[in-house]
Every structure is written in C-alpha cells, then in structure tokens.
Specification:
By secondary structure, the chain is an alpha/beta fold. The chain contains 14 helices and 12 strands. α1 packs across α4, α2 packs across α3 and α4 runs antiparallel to α5. The C terminus is likely disordered.
C-alpha cells in the first residue's frame, strides 16, 4: 500500500498507521512541492517497483495531480492498482487494517474506503453550519472583496465553514444582525470595518486581516474549530488517568503504571498487559515530536480508555529515540473516533507544546477534552 502526498505528509500518515497496526505495510512517498506531475508519477512508479511482491496495490493520494499513476504502475509492474484521493490518516489506518486482516479483494477494499470517505464528507456538510461573519458598513463592495480575499487565503482551511457577509445598513441594531446570523450559523469569528464589541466572538479588523498576522489568527481559529468538533475524548480520558512525572523513569514503569490502573478499574482484561508488550516488540510505537502511543489488543478492552503521561525528562523508548509524552491506548475496534480526535491534537505543534508546559493533570485534561469555546 502506497501513501503519496505533496510535501512531507505521506510518510507521517504511513508511520502512524504502521504503529497502530504493528506492521510496516504502508509505505509513504513524499513529493517535493516543486516536482512536476511527470516527476511525481515516476517517483511513485519507482517505489511501486521496489515494494512489488506480486500482489495488488492500493495508492492513497492526497490530491488530483497524483491520480493518474495507476495505469503507469500497471504497465511497469503488472500489479492491479486502485488509486484513491483526499486521503487522511484514519483512511490510511483503515486501509492497513483491511489489507492485513481481511480477505476482501482489492476492489472491495477500495470501494469501501471510497464509500467511507464520501459518507464522512456528507455528514460533515450536514452537521457543520460554521461561519466567518464579514460585517461591513453596507454589506456590499468592501464586504464582497473581503470575502474573496478570505476565500482565496483560507481555501485549505474552510472545509465545512462558509463566509457570510452582512451590512450595518441591513438593520439598525448590530446585535440583531448577529442574532439573526446565529439562527443559521455557528459564528467562529467576526471580520469587519467596525468592531461590534459583542464579546462573544473574536473580532479581526479589516486592516489586520490583510496582514499575515490577521490571516494567521483566523486560520488558527478555524484549525481549533475543526480539531474540537464534537470532541468526545472526555468519554475515554479522565484526570485519574493523567500522570505527570518529574523524574526520569523507564519505559516499562510508565506502561505498567498506566495499564495497571486500567486493569484495576476493570477497563481492560489481565492479558492486555502482555498484548501491549507484544505490540511494542513487533514495532516501536514512537511517533514524531517525542510522542509514543503504546497499545494492545482491542479485543481485551472492556471499556475504551486512554491514559496520558507527561515527563519532565524524556526516557529512551526504542533504544535510539526518546519520548516525553505517552498515550497508552486501550481502545476497541469501533473506537476510531477517539483516536482520530486524539491524533488531530497531537499533530498540532502548539497543542503539544501546551501539554508539555502544563503543570497539573487538570490543565492537560482541559487541553485534550474541552471544546473549542473553552480554548483561547
């Protein structure tokens, strides 16, 4: 299975999927942003040749310019190929699970992955009515240009979010304009010529939004909104399962403490201990940024739980690399949503830095489990 992307994304998604599934089945192919389409195709075909085991091949690509590699791989290697687009990390995890642990054919796996992707997109479109409110004096002219500017600068961040223009001239009361907008949309931020001083939403002035700092602020608001959409991590993370350690410890001590508490509370079966160490023996669960995600057999979990350990001093994890944040995952096969939400958080450098800076378990719990409106 090949994961292909523009920029250094594919290798990271493959690494996470392999760590979760305890395999090396997913292979990442990172393209340079300046590569031509022909160069991208050649790099993908070259990797397909190297990993060819005489079986079928699934290519998970991030966008359209990589979708024409299937025919070339078939011609060069003789493998049957299916290419899917708009790939995310959880799609890679699911693809690895299906290719490794089911008897489904290439087309059955690809069709189901495609169906999951499309279903998820429809559900998000129906559930999210989020909006950036452009509030200008007339609602026309400047507001339209502002909307065009935001659409262009934020196009990679606007999934599920619309830009709404309203004018002061529409109603004598700013409060009523905002209240009427709230009936249809969840307002994430207000951008405009005059500060409504509502206090309920972040305000970014027109002069600031045309600067990198203003766009960066709005992009951060959108990113946090996506990260904490329907955050359900509080169902599996409790302050009692968050540990802060000021002294250096061994990897085994960290795992033993976390899993021991899970077992004592009846959240996992006794055999879960051994399954965690077996998985560690198969392949390291260390990710980038000094984070590790040890986990065991989902069939030995009676109730989903995730523990968090933050170390003031990193410990050696795989004989070479160190970690200082450890998430022990006791999740079941139908607990995909929890890992997806956790992964969104630990992929955000600012969130990881905030976890490292936390001094209490309550601070860490708030960062992981509270919704967007609770995050400044």
């Amino acid at each position: 299975m090949l994961v292909v992307s523009h920029g250094p994304v594919a290798s990271a998604m493959a690494q996470v999927a392999n760590a979760i599934m305890g395999t090396e089945h997913a292979v990442g192919v990172d393209m340079n942003l300046w590569d031509t389409p022909a160069q991208m195709v050649e790099k993908t075909v070259d990797m397909a040749r190297r990993v060819n085991q005489g079986k079928d091949c699934i290519v998970l690509a991030d966008m359209g310019s990589l979708l024409n590699v299937g025919q070339k791989i078939r011609e060069e290697t003789g493998m049957q190929v299916r290419v899917l687009s708009r790939t995310d990390t959880m799609m890679v995890v699911e693809a690895v699970r299906k290719t490794m642990w089911t008897d489904e054919s290439l087309n059955e796996i690809a069709d189901e992955l495609d169906k999951i992707k499309l279903t998820g997109t429809r559900e998000q479109a129906e559930a999210r009515k989020k909006a950036i409110l452009c509030l200008c004096i007339t609602g026309q002219g400047a507001a339209v240009k502002l909307k065009e500017h935001l659409t262009e600068r934020l196009k990679s961040n606007l999934a599920g979010t619309v830009i709404v223009t309203r004018g002061y001239i529409e109603d004598s009361s700013i409060e009523r304009i905002i209240a009427n907008t709230e009936k249809e949309y969840e307002i994430l931020a207000i951008v405009g010529t005059i500060n409504p001083e509502s206090g309920a939403y972040p305000f970014i002035s027109v002069s600031r939004i045309y600067s990198p700092e203003g766009i960066g602020q709005l992009r951060g608001i959108l990113k946090r909104s996506a990260m904490f959409e329907e955050n359900q991590l509080s169902e599996v993370i409790s302050p009692d399962h968050i540990y802060i350690r000021t002294e250096a410890e061994f990897k085994d001590q960290i795992i033993d403490e976390a899993v021991g508490h899970m077992e004592a509370e009846g959240l996992v079966r006794q055999e879960f201990f051994l399954s965690v160490y077996k998985r560690e023996g198969m392949m390291t669960t260390r990710l980038s940024q000094g984070i590790a995600i040890p986990h065991g057999d989902p069939g030995l979990v009676t109730k989903p739980v995730i523990s968090v350990t933050k170390l003031d001093k990193p410990v050696l994890w795989d004989g070479v690399n160190t970690v200082d944040i450890i998430f022990v995952l006791g999740i079941q096969e139908d607990s995909r949503k929890y890992f997806e939400q956790l992964y969104q958080i630990i992929s955000d450098e600012s969130m990881v830095s905030a976890i490292r800076a936390s001094r209490t378990r309550e601070e860490i719990w708030n960062l992981l489990c509270k919704n967007t409106k609770s995050v400044n």
